[in-house]
Amino acid sequence: MSKDWRVYAQHVLAAIEKIRRIEQRGDLTRDEVLYDASLRNLHTLSEATQRLPDELKNAYPEIPWQQIGGFRNILLLTIWVTSTRKRSPRLVKHYLPPIDVAVRHMLAH
Q1: d(CA 92, CA 99)
Q2: Where are the domains of the chain?
């Protein structure tokens, strides 16, 4: 039996909260430890979003769920190049706020 989707939604929210706390400690593009910590949590977030029901995600078409899920593949391939280092903070700043709102809304309904 698989886990209830709400468990994965909570994983998403926990990862977002951790990434926000990591961001407060410094620049992710300049501090390797902060960067690595944020990547670990982005991996958790990416993995967990894939477990959310499509019918719920479809209600939030402004969020690129498929690309966010695909970000996990980049992390798993361990492509730690400049493009990934630049992409991670952009993902954090641009997509985490709407994902946070969407997942909280999913849980509320």
Answers
A1: 10
A2: 5-108
Per-residue CA distances from 87 to 52, 56, 104 (Å): 23, 26, 25
**Per-residue three-class SS string for 2-13:** CCCHHHHHHHHH
Amino acid identity, residue 78? Answer: T
Residues listed for the chain: 109
How do the pLDDT tens digits run along the chain, 109 residues long?
A: 578 999 999 999 999 999 999 999 998 888 889 988 988 998 899 999 999 999 999 999 999 898 888 776 666 554 444 455 555 666 677 778 899 999 999 999 8
Helix 65-76 vs helix 32-49: crossing angle, to nearest 10: 130
**Helix (H) or strand (E) run with residue 105 in it:** helix 82-108
User: How many angstroms separate the CA atoms of 42 and 68, rounded?
Assistant: 9
